[in-house]
Amino acid sequence: MDKLLEMKGISKSFYGTQALKDVNIKIEPGEIQAVCGENGAGKSTLMNIMTGILQPNEGEIIFEGEKLTNLDPRTAQEKGISIVHQELSLCPEVSVAENIFMGRVPEKKRGMVNFKEMRKEAEKVLKRLNLDIDVKQPLGKLGISEQQMVEIAKALSINAKILILDEPTSSLTESESQILFDNLLRLKKEGIAIFFISHRLKEIFQICDSFTVLRDGVHVGDGRVADVDPDDIVRMMVGRELDQAYPDKGTEVGQNILTVENISRKDEFENISFEVNEKEIVGLFGLIGAGRSEAMQTVFGINQPDSGKIKLFDKDITANNTRENIDQGLIYITEDRKEQGLFLDMDLNANVVAADLEQVSENSLVKKKKVKDIGGKFVDIMNTKYASLDQPVKSLSGGNQQKVLLAKWLAVDPRVLILDEPTRGIDVGAKFEIHTTLRELSNNGHAVMFISSELPEILGLSDRILIMHQGKLVGELDADTATEEEVMMYASGRKNDFEN
Amino acid sequence: MENTQNSSVLKKLFGLREASLALIIIVFAALLSFMAPGFLSTYNINTTLIGLSMDGILAVGMTLVLVVGGIDLSVGSVMAFANVLAGMTMVTLGLNIWLSVLISMVLSVLIGFSISQFITKIKLSPFITTLSMMSIGRGLAYIITKGSPVSIGQISETFDFIGGGKTFGIPNPGLILILLVIVMDFLMRNSKTFRKIYYVGSNEEAAKFSGINVNKTKIMVYILCSSLAGFAGILNLARFGVATPTVGTGAELRAIAGAVIGGASLTGGEGTVLGAFLGIILVGLVNNALVLLGVSVYWQQLVVGLVLLSAVIIDMKVHGSK
What we know:
The complex is a heterodimer of chains A (500) and B (322).
Chain A: E1 5-14, E2 17-27, E3 32-36, H1 43-50, E4 58-63, E5 66-68, H2 73-79, E6 81-84, H3 96-100, H4 115-128, H5 144-157, E7 162-166, H6 174-189, E8 193-197, H7 201-207, E9 210-215, E10 218-224, H8 230-238, E11 256-265, E12 269-277, E13 280-285, H9 292-300, E14 307-312, E15 315-316, H10 322-327, E16 330-333, H11 337-341, H12 348-352, E17 361-362, E18 365-366, H13 368-381, H14 398-410, E19 416-420, H15 428-443, E20 447-452, H16 455-461, E21 464-469, E22 472-478, H17 484-491
Helix pairs in contact in A: 4-5, 13-14
Chain B: H1 2-15, H2 17-35, H3 42-67, H4 75-91, H5 97-120, H6 126-145, E1 150-151, H7 157-164, E2 166-167, E3 170-171, H8 172-190, H9 192-202, H10 204-209, H11 214-240, E4 242-243, H12 251-261, H13 273-292, H14 299-320
Antiparallel strand pairs in B: 1-4, 2-3
Helix pairs in contact in B: 2-13, 3-8, 3-11, 3-12, 3-13, 4-5, 4-6, 4-11, 5-6, 5-11, 7-11, 8-9, 9-11, 12-13, 12-14, 13-14
């Protein structure tokens, strides 16, 4: 079959850092190709060059046999190369149809919008995705997965021949992902080529035909998915053998530290009770919407429970606010590092000391030297890669941002750590390092509890597993003997050990 | 290694808003002293300093509000309200001047407190809240004076001295501004409490999740801003001896301009008191230049607008290339 797109010898550097070096990639019509690599491997840079957002320093782009030079985003789109970003880039207040035709609204006489035509066309393109929704309603009324479909529909309506999906499943549930995959296969049949960027190897093996692996800006491998197994791809991504996927489990359980008794919050969760002990990692599993984050944020003091009791070292802390809990050693590390975790425009030091200005202050004055000492110490403990402690956190890769977030919380010297999706959207290497850190903390006598939507992580890292379904705790399992299927039975509501 | 360190020091210095602003001010003043011989006269310097001191005090408060991610459009009106309240309680009720000043300050604090309550509790946007308060404050000032200025006469030598006297040859309002800038700049850079303003302005949610009391920080900031506005109003009364309901008209925009020229970001998290002070000086110098060069006063607002635009564009280019 003919190649649809070929990029040859692409190189790109930013301020002396080589982001891409002599990279080759090609795709055929109707091919779904995975682009794999750790964060910072150059995937985004490559996709930005393909869509004309960045210009390469060297190399050429050949699309349908034609060499494209000085590609800009508009031309790329008109040629049929479209990207669906990880963070959706649509207008929630505007109608679905207008979102699809943003910037290309069909007109009547004298510049008036031809709504009838626009709605008809919008419905037509949504039908290709098997989506039957009212195109007049504001986009924001739709769920995340439907919004994503609208974004794909938008690309299709510009006559996309190549569709780039950047981490499309990161905010979707399992069943929503399945609907997305069905649609991708439908588009594949229409002859549309798809670049699929994902950290989830399982998905790559489920849906992709071929793969390209980048590491540190260099093309390290490509081929047919059918010819390799997941370990091969991981090896190419990290460039070393992963001796084991998870650190050793804990051997003993210490004394009880955190006790939660029957806490409830209206419309969020009901009668949640659990304990977390020293030297133990407890994994909390549940599907999106099970109320996991809400329950944990309440334990941390972001909200107060309507009823129930929370005890730390046998002391009632139910009425505590977050400040009091932090000072007593109970912390919560958010799943949303960009919105709730980090001060992206501020430097590494300022971020690390944010949760405890007290320890870097004397007589209510912040001491710059202490800020530097603490900041440097904890980002190094987390093995964060950075150029300078003065650089803004937003200039770091996702995995390193996550490490700064952890550094910030280790700096307050916590006893009980509650982590919400601590490794979401970060690469295999950083993930392993974070798992190792958590296990070390636990072995040193800390109590660790974490929320995760990834079954392998729940089974691999936890000593004990709690499962929530629709706001209720439905199961507790020993991680040594639990299986993925068993955990899923509870999470989907088919099994419940605590029902009266 | 050494090379990169050198260049980073250079970059830091040039990247520093205050340093480049100070440089612009010095060059501008030097040029002006050649073009307009009257510029360096003690009289001109003192009048310019007095002229910008009220705006400067407002700009200090405005910086705090901008850094926390808000805005306060009511400062000019609060200034007028405090100004006429102190004057009229003295004239019509015959209160002791210091008691009048105290009442005026207490009410300024209360205005700041109520603004902060609308913003933190009812979750109104700072823009709408303070736009309303801008109208309410100005309205009160007109109601209290029935619209016309009222002279308070010679009431207290100390009060007159604060507004009209000099210390070490510097007019007192200017001296007060300089002291205020030194103290507030120090606090904004070093105080544990004031550093929280930057965290809240940079990312409110993250601040909340880091155990920073976001509402408390905002309440403090809005109270400080209104108090400083009230204080500027009283200082104006001490200076001119007239309770004037129109005082501070448009001052909120000059204060915002000064703070933004000085590096404050309208999206929060950035800005320094020293920068705002230099920004106000630059605006004051430009106005002074227009007067000395015989340009009609009607041009002043236009030119200030152009200075603001250029400052923001230059800043975008410098920051954007980072």
